[in-house]
Amino acid sequence: MSGCIDDAAVAAWLAGELAAGELGAAVEHVADCARCRAVVALVVGEPAPAAATIGRYVVRGSLGAGGMGVVLDAWDPVLERPTAIKMIQAALDLPADRARLLAEARALARLEHPAVVAVYECGEAGDELFVAMARVDGVTLDQWLDAAAPSVAARLAVLREVAAGLAAIHAAGLVHRDLKPANVVVEPGGRAVIVDLGLARALDRPVVGVGSGLAGTPAYWAPEVAAGQPASSASDQHGWWRLVQLALPTLPGPAGRRLARAVERGLAAEPEARFPSMTAAAEALARAVAPRPWRGRAALALAGVAVAMALGWWRWSRPPPRDPCPARAVAALRPALARVTATLVASGRDPAPVARELAARAQLADALAIRACRAEGTGEAARLVRARQQRACVDATWGETVRAVDGVVAAPAGQLADALEDVAVAPPLAACEAGAVPAMPAPPPLERAAAVAAGEAALREVRADPARAPGDQLTALDALGPRLAAIAHAPLLATWHHDRARVLMELGRLDASDRELVATATAASAANDDDLRARALINRLRLAYQTGRADTGPLVDDAAAAVARLANPAFTAELDVGVARAALVRGDVATAVERLRGALAVYDALPLPTPRRTTAVLQDLGAALQAIGDLDAAQAAFERGYQLARAAFGDDDPATVELRGARATNLLYQDDPAAEPELAAVAAAMIRAQGPRSRDVMQVQTYRCELYLMRGAIDAGAEPCRAGAAIGAEVFGADSPQRVWPLVLLGRYLLLAGQPAAAVDALAHAVAIGGLGAPLPSLPALARAYLAHAQRAAGAPLPPSPPPGAPSASCALPPQSDVTAMLAELAAAFP
User: Fold this and answer.
1) Cα 310 from Cα 289, distance rounded (Å)
2) Cα gap 138→324, rounded to integer Å
3) Structural contact between residues 333 and 228, judged by C-beta atoms closer than 8 angstroms
4) CB of 278 closer than 8 Å to CB of 236
5) Is the dihedral of CA 481, 485, 489, 493 positive or negative?
6) Running DSSP on this structure, what letter comes out for residue 114?
7) Which of 102, 348, 479, 540: CA 20 to 30 A from 625?
8) Pick from 698, 704, 703: which is nearest to 716 by CA?
9) Cα 495 to Cα 536: distance, rounded to the nearest angstrom
10) What 3-state DSSP class applies to 441?
11) 424-428, 783-787, 825-829 — which is least confidently predicted?
């Protein structure tokens, strides 16, 4: 690529139409070109490296990002005041466009209104434009409504101030284009100020640059903007009436009915059907909420007749309506695609596969929605019902993809791969085409929407902090519980229970985690959420495997029914993994291998890769193949999983280290001399990444213990054998089923080291824990066999006989070189 990326190249890039060579050249150019790199940084919402000063302003940090660029925290040393500097995304503008942008910024600087943030100065800084504005201290409108619980009068005052500010913006010949709660700040004294004017554009010119024609926030787009038409003052008015809905969700009596009628007109689909100006809109709100004396009712009734006659004439005389079934998904996807592409380029990933898949999904969503919309107009009752069901399915399913795309843009660097995987496994629109309509939760009532959104954000914050330990996450979730319960929104409570189950599982509190998953499934049913219910049931299957629970038939049936309703191949694969693990608990390794290979085939066939899920399946498959003695096939599975994890997550990711350990252990079973140094390297990597005390470190120390015992290196086994059992107690608790195998190995070491009395203590503890449910039914029997030997060696009484029907094991100690006798237990003990 010889020059900077232009609009045509960006459009081709997002549509996946650049050839491989052109795409590579574009990525290389962005890496080398500071100007284009600045555009990428602006789109992803992080500032490009900047000089210490912009004009006379000293840059102190970043305040965030708006629709057209980043906002910097600065200080004006001349006037000695804090300043916010908006760096306007102008890198793709032609000189004439830059001149217009400067003219618009200067128009904003001339605009003086108490409800509009003051613009001090505008100018050029290298290749970029900047606008220096006043720093506004306060909280956003939604935060104010949530935290301050203001009176109706205070809410009306804020809405009037915002309307007056918009009217001033329109009078200056500009339109804001991104009015939303986050762009209205309420100061401590209650005054409202409109901020983030970076999307303001002259009323008489189109938008240029990245995402041409669409900008702002999709949830607050007016219908004509979502359809790709230019924004206008009527579009700003539409956003203002959305704020009215948020601030005044309900009013009692006639005032509530009048307000509903005013809101309906303000949100009309046709821009010309709304109020003629922001001043008129504000007056309509004032009339709606004002008390009405009885003596004025007759005059009002006559006025209503006149208005009805006028509206009837207007409807008869206005132009024919636009297409009632427009295509919206593709147009709405454009700005999101720009942000995702920039995010992936900045992280060194190829955006073309993601862009192609998202474009294909958007086209299918539009085709299905238009087909259903037109079928609704046929008047046939049966077709009408089917069409409405299909439209609801398309809206909900496409919405899941949009949320997953937003998650990619918002993901911290360490969680980007997982966020991309959420896009890959989002529900397929083909299910709607085939007639499947999974149950989806309804949106919250308007009066609870802000509280629900705040609750979801709080849960995401707990989830997204990789540095927060599981115990701290549980504390944070427990603190959120009463607040979320007070909101009384079933989908939110279901998500909270599911998050608690995940953290409890990480802490080794498996019974408590299972109880939370039961609560998740119950709340998800109440929320009409098939997706989350299926996840909860599949995770219960995973827990059943870890606790050695064999009676999973009813649970498998429930999970299979929930997954069938979703018609999502990714969920079918996850169910296969759960069923495979349940089969391992029963000792049915052949079924486990068959199901795991089926899950692997599903993940391999998805349009976008799923490395996290695929590597987990490969690790399970390798363990199952070990259990039937097919060590070569197991090695191939572990090797593929390890290489995939390295490429996707890096060498220090827990999944990579676990697969490296599993691969090394398989070498151990093959008596390969490379196993010992490899396991030592894995232990060092785990300790370096996770510290000396973690589940993974316990696991690899247990592997090393087994290695030294098999090799007859008893002295070398002392440290890893003792460490595996000790770390298990710290991580999972002294009586956790996860400790059975480390204790059995510790007992074997102590026997071989000539310490039978200490061996009795370790093995007796393993036997006692086995009664609580061990990771594999045969492990307690194995522990009893070693305990009998230890008690004979120590001169202690033999343990009582196992109850009828309990698994049995030979009481003869196997030779140290006989690996196969214990292969199945070791392979399946730790998934």
Assistant:
1) 23
2) 42
3) no
4) yes
5) positive
6) T
7) 540
8) 704
9) 10
10) coil
11) 825-829
Measured CA distances, 240 to 175, 179, 568 (Å): 12, 7, 39
- Ranges of H-type helices in 527-610: 530-547, 553-566, 569-586, 589-605
pLDDT band at 64 (very low <50, low <70, confident <90, very high): low
Residue 762, phi then psi, degrees to nearest 5: -65, -45
SS3 116: strand
CB 122 within 8 A of CB 172: no
Mean pLDDT of 288-295: 65
- pLDDT of 109 > 90? The answer is no
Q: Which residue has the tokens 């300043």?
A: 83
Instruction: Write the DSSP symbol of residue 774.
Output: -
**DSSP assignment of 555-567:** HHHHHHHHHHHHT
d(CA 634, CA 611): 18
Compute φ and ψ for 800, nearest 5 degrees. -65, 155
Q: What is the amino acid identity at position 339?
A: R
Residue 75, phi then psi, degrees to nearest 5: -130, 135
Q: Which two tokens mark 181?
A: 């709660």
Q: Is 139 helix (H, G, I), strand (E, B) or coil?
A: strand
Per-residue pLDDT, averaged over 763-776, amounts to: 66
| DSSP-derived secondary structure letter, 62 | E
Per-residue pLDDT at 324: 64
SS3 content of the chain, % helix, strand, coil (to 5): 65, 5, 30
**Helix H or strand E segment including 382:** helix 381-410
Q: What is the Cα–Cα distance from 142 to 247, expressed in whole angstroms?
A: 8
**Which residue type is seen at 626?**
Q
Question: pLDDT digits over 135-148, tens only?
Answer: 888 888 988 887 76
H/E stretch holding 787:
helix 778-794
Q: What is the Cβ-side half-sphere exposure of residue 247, based on CA atoms within 13 angstroms?
A: 30
Provide the H-helix boundaries in 95-140: 95-110
| Identity of the residue numbered 802 | P
CA atoms within 13 A on the CB side of 736: 24
- Checking DSSP bridges between strand 81-88 and strand 201-202, what pairing results, if any? unpaired
Q: Give yes or no for a contact between 88 and 77, defined as CB atoms under 8 angstroms apart.
A: no
**Residue 496, both tokens:** 């909270």
Collapsed DSSP state (helix, strand, coil) of residue 507 = coil
Q: Which amino acid is at 288?
A: A
Does position 728 have pLDDT exceeding 80, yes or no?
yes
- Nearest to 41, CA basis, from 343, 406, 336, 337: 343
| 315 Cβ contact partners less than 8 Å away, ≥ 6 residues apart | none
Best CA proximity match to 62, nearest among 76, 78, 45:
45
Distance (Å, whole) CA 88 – CA 102: 10
Q: Using only C-alpha atoms, what is the Rg of the chain?
A: 32
* Paired tokens of 718: 């002392």
Q: CB-based burial of residue 521 (10 Å sphere; 0-12 exposed, 13-18 middle, 19+ buried)?
A: buried
Give pLDDT tens digits for 382-402. 667 777 777 778 887 888 888
CA distance 391 to 260: 26
